[in-house]
Design a protein that fits this description.
By secondary structure, the chain is of the alpha/beta class. The chain is about 30% helix and about 20% strand. The longest helix has 30 residues, at about 125-155. InterPro entries: Invertase/methylesterase_inhib, Pectin_lyas_fold, Pectin_lyase_fold/virulence, Pectinesterase_Asp_AS, Pectinesterase_cat, Pectinesterase_inhib_dom.
Length: about 575
């Protein structure tokens, strides 16, 4: 995320010409720049004028397409559709597939462009990390676009939410890439790649708007149905027996059903123990040994101890489960942070990308401290991921719910500034959200949701949680202003429902990000909360803020509707509420 102690950045005048940063394959004639700088400027102006005239002329002759109605970038939509042969003979899902495939081509070009900049020796470590983040994010985008095409080609009416989810994530990746350059001082290479990334985002935005026009297949209750499958089977998890994968024997079922972890019942695939009594002494080694693209649950039992390492569950490590000995007993701890040169994205103590991840009975901590600014404990870009009875400890940016669908149950989350942030579709149930004592002159903000587009199906839903102060702040809550959230991106969306809001919550409830930014486009709601901080009498009067009075509106942010959790969380045997009751 952007540096919170300075919410506003003035543009920095470049110290070198754009052409000096041209990729190695560029055919720029440097002798001309040296001998005739005036001619170069004149030529650039003429080229720019020519491009503007041509773009204007072409936009005037683009035909009107009904599929482009409601898109944020209708001219781009029309120009894209104009290149599709036999357009009138294609169905809407087929048209969207073509647009998504064209988007993938642009993503590959953007990735190649980023890779070219890795050759510049003048780049500092932070910019190199940011570029590598971009390459990883663009690679993930290609996977997500591929999933979208696959779903659209099979039974699109049964996969509308799935397609919206992966397209939302692919757009988020582009902005995450650019966010990595936000804290760089001096010459910033991010400005030279943002044009391509914005173009990709606009293409995805148009695809999202068109997907919204596909009528989803629903059941008698009005809920979207997936493709008809064996009721004891779930896509990506293999055959299910009574809610568990067929490979899970009676011992593992007892483990998943037990009210607390009992090591005597664990039959893991691998065990991590610092004392050498397991298969590995580090978590990273166990993850590396796990199978790639597993369709079966792979359990890694992590014995009690403090594991001082940064752990990444990569995109190929699917259906991994971490089982610890309990909060505060099994601890993964590190201290990467932005002040020391890491990007926010790369600062995570535990980063989870592989889909279908389950974390249970563990603590994840970033121990960098409040003066190190952004320092992530957990980053999650794993679709259909679940965390049960875990704790996440940090200060600024503790929990990065980056993208895709996530669920947290009975978890403890500690932090100060924007300590739950990102652009996933995420539901928290029965969790404790603890605001800690920040640095002097700082405020506490629980959430900073990052939705960039009104058609993204993302947001933060906090249901039946306790929103209160940590022990270091509880004795003097009046010394720090504490807010429920602020809008990180233009269409930020956050809802607090049926939760206990303690007295530390400022009466206004919510904090602006920068002036009037996003106040009309955000969606912030409160529904049937209790506690001394729950009064809405003096809340902000922003156009996008609302006190929700309708159960129908509130239901949109429940597990069943918001993350389609009744279709997948039950397979983890983690308890959850599907609706409001």
């Amino acid at each position: 995320m952007q540096l919170k102690t300075s919410l506003f950045f003035l543009p920095i005048k470049p110290k070198m010409s754009i052409l000096s940063l041209a990729p190695p394959h560029s055919h720029v004639q440097y002798s001309l720049l040296t001998v005739h700088p005036f001619l170069t400027i004149l030529l650039s102006l003429l080229i720019a004028q020519s491009c503007i005239v041509k773009a204007f002329a072409s936009s005037q002759h683009l035909p009107s397409y009904t599929h482009c109605e409601g898109t944020l970038y209708p001219e781009l939509c029309a120009s894209t559709l104009s290149t599709i042969q036999d357009l009138n003979k294609k169905s809407l899902p087929e048209i969207i597939c073509t647009v998504v495939n064209k988007t993938a081509d642009e993503v590959r070009a953007s990735s190649a462009n980023c890779s070219a900049y890795l050759h510049y020796r003048s780049l500092d470590q932070h910019q190199l990390l940011a570029i590598n983040d971009c390459i990883e994010l663009l690679d993930g985008t290609l996977d997500e676009l591929s999933v979208a095409v696959s779903d659209l080609e099979s039974k699109p009416n049964s996969h509308v939410n799935d397609v919206l989810t992966v397209l939302s994530a692919s757009m988020t990746n582009q902005y995450t890439c650019l966010d990595g350059f936000s804290n760089i001082k001096g010459e910033n290479i991010g400005r030279y790649i943002k044009g391509r990334l914005h173009h990709v985002s606009h293409l995805v935005s148009n695809s999202l708007a068109m997907v919204k026009k596909i009528t989803p297949k629903t059941n008698n209750n009005g809920r979207q149905m997936r493709e008809e499958v064996d009721p004891e089977s779930f896509e990506g998890y293999g055959k299910m027996l009574q809610g568990f994968p067929e490979w899970v024997g009676p011992g593992d079922r007892r483990l998943l059903q037990a009210p607390s972890t009992d090591p005597t019942q664990i039959i893991p695939d691998l065990t991590v123990a610092k004392d050498g009594s397991g298969n590995f002494t580090t978590i990273s080694a166990a993850v590396a040994a796990a199978p790639d693209k597993s369709k079966k649950r792979f359990v890694i039992y992590i014995k009690a101890g403090a594991y001082l390492e940064n752990v990444e569950v990569g995109k190929s490590k699917t259906n991994i489960m971490f089982v610890g000995d309990g909060i505060g007993k099994t601890v993964i701890k590190a201290s990467r942070n932005v002040v020391d040169g890491w990007t926010t994205f790369r600062s995570a103590t535990l980063a989870v990308v592989g889909n279908g991840f389950i974390g249970r009975d563990i603590t994840v901590e970033n121990a960098a401290g409040p003066s190190k600014h952004q320092a992530v404990a957990l980053r999650v870009s794993s679709d259909l991921s679940t965390f049960y009875r875990c704790s996440f400890i940090g200060y600024q940016d503790t929990l990065y719910t980056h993208s895709l669908r996530q669920f947290y149950r009975e978890c403890d989350i500690y932090g100060t500034i924007d300590f739950i942030f990102g652009n996933s579709a995420v539901v928290f149930q029965d969790c404790n959200l603890y605001a800690r004592k920040p640095n002097p002159n700082q405020s506490n903000i629980y959430t900073a949701q990052g939705r960039e587009d009104p058609n993204q199906n993302t947001g933060i839903s906090i249901q039946k949680c306790k929103v209160t102060a940590a022990s270091d702040l509880a004795s003097n809550v009046s010394s720090v202003k504490t807010y429920l959230g602020r809008p990180w991106k233009e269409y930020s969306r956050t809802v607090f429902m049926q939760s206990y809001l303690d007295s530390l919550i400022d009466p206004t409830g919510w904090l602006p990000w920068n002036g009037s930014f996003a106040l009309s486009t955000l969606y912030y709601g409160e529904y049937l909360n209790t506690g001394p901080g729950s009064s809405t009498a003096n809340r902000v009067k922003w156009p996008g803020y609302r006190v929700i009075t309708s159960a129908t509106e509130a239901n949109q942010f429940t597990v069943s509707s918001f993350i389609q959790g009744d279709q997948w969380i039950s397979l983890t045997n983690v308890p959850f509420m599907t609706g409001l009751n």
